[in-house]
Amino acid sequence: MQPQDTGVQYRRWNNNSRDEVSVNVSTAEASGCRRVYNKLCTGKVGIAVKVIGGNILFWIVFIIGYVTGYYVHKCK
């Protein structure tokens, strides 16, 4: 079994009455999500993903509006 990387540590400072709480998160989970985010949302690939996503969203809204308008304004 692998040791767990998650844990909470609590330290109390006596001189200034400050409390310090640190939470350790598993680096395998955090780095996987961060890696996907960095790959798809930053740099040239991120710009391309945003442009393609914007175009897809535009055409979906356009088609829904066209079909809705066709049925609303259809002659009887």
UniProtKB/TrEMBL annotation:
Task: Give the PANTHER family listed for this entry.
Answer: SMALL INTEGRAL MEMBRANE PROTEIN 1
Bilayer-crossing residues are 47-72
What Pfam families does this protein map onto? Answer: DUF4731
Q: Could you tell me what this protein is called?
A: Small integral membrane protein 1
Keyword Membrane among UniProt keywords: yes
* Originating species: Alligator sinensis (Chinese alligator)
Keywords carried by this UniProt record? Membrane, Transmembrane, Transmembrane helix
